[in-house]
Structure to design on (323 residues):
């Protein structure tokens, strides 16, 4: 019998969209969604769902056995801003969750693992523009340190134990179907909601903070592509740079103003500014392009247009339902 796929951390920003995409592709019963809490999301509840704390190894193993899981997308993690406030919990979740999944793969319980890394693996001493795959990496955020350590462990488990683990260094992810939580790049999603609801936004990063970002459709496509690529094409087992587009808050605000002329923005940088200042402005993803044919489809203008159009539809539909 064909094994099933388990998505851990399915209620998060990527999880909801990834589960939907995987279920459309492989069939609803083939993809088990899981998260630490019961989900109210209709997208997750139209197929199997399990409550799972990835820090509980016995539970993880029980669910893997129960559903005959052969592939795991392990997305449960604490993001950059929340991690700064809870360093020990962040380290525990981000590292031990990964070890549990890698150990199951080492013992052949599961055959393939996806684990997300982040542009947070880079630090203030990393070259800022077109940051290459291989470069100085001295992250100074709790989240970045955990992601860099995770990358080293992924490569180690591949080399030593033959674990088929694949990973991407996600930039900030921008989508209209699900909300981010606890990240430094979250402003670039919130701004669209506030622009449509209130016509103004107070940004927690300064106006010229350039960061790498990616439309969620691109991120889901990259994730599924790297998992489907033949093993010999995956030549990097730590994590691949992937680029979408790069913009500053003021550039994004300008694009929003073109469609919502009354929109205004103010800047009140907080502790997240320091995290953002330590990250690259743009990413060189030559290896991902060469090895498994990666190419982003969304530039900043297409991203902004899509967000505004889709959020308008969504808000209109919500108003009709509540009437
Ligand atoms: C965050 O801001 O923490 C995340 C990330 C870049 O990994 N979106």
């Amino acid at each position: 019998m064909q094994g099933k796929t388990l998505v851990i951390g399915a209620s998060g920003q990527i999880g909801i969209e990834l589960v939907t995409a995987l279920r459309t592709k492989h069939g609803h019963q083939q993809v088990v969604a899981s998260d630490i809490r019961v989900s109210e999301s209709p997208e997750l509840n139209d197929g199997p769902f399990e409550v799972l704390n990835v820090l509980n190894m016995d539970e993880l193993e029980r669910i893997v056995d129960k559903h005959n899981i052969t592939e795991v997308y392990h997305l449960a993690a604490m993001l950059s801003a929340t991690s700064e406030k809870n360093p020990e919990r962040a380290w525990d979740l981000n590292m031990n969750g990964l070890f549990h999944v890698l150990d199951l793969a080492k013992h052949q319980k599961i055959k393939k693992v996806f684990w997300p890394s982040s542009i947070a693996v880079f630090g203030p001493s990393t070259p800022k523009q077109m940051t290459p795959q291989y470069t100085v990496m001295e992250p100074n955020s709790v989240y970045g340190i955990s992601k860099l350590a995770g990358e080293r462990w992924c490569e180690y488990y591949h080399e030593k134990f033959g674990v088929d683990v694949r990973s991407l260094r996600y930039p900030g992810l921008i989508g209209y179907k699900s909300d981010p939580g606890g990240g430094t790049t979250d402003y670039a999603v919130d701004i669209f909601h506030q622009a449509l609801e209130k016509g103004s936004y107070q940004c927690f990063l300064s106006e010229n903070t350039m960061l790498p970002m990616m439309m969620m459709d691109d991120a889901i496509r990259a994730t599924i592509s790297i998992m489907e690529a033949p093993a010999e094409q995956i030549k990097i087992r730590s994590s691949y740079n992937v680029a979408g587009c790069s913009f500053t808050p003021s550039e994004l605000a300008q694009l929003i103003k073109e469609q919502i002329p009354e929109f205004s923005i103010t800047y009140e940088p907080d502790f997240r500014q320091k995290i953002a200042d330590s990250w690259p402005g743009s990413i060189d993803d030559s290896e991902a392009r060469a090895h498994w044919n990666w190419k982003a489809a969304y530039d900043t203008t297409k991203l902004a247009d899509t967000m505004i159009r889709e959020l308008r539809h969504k808000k209109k539909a919500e108003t009709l339902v509540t009437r």
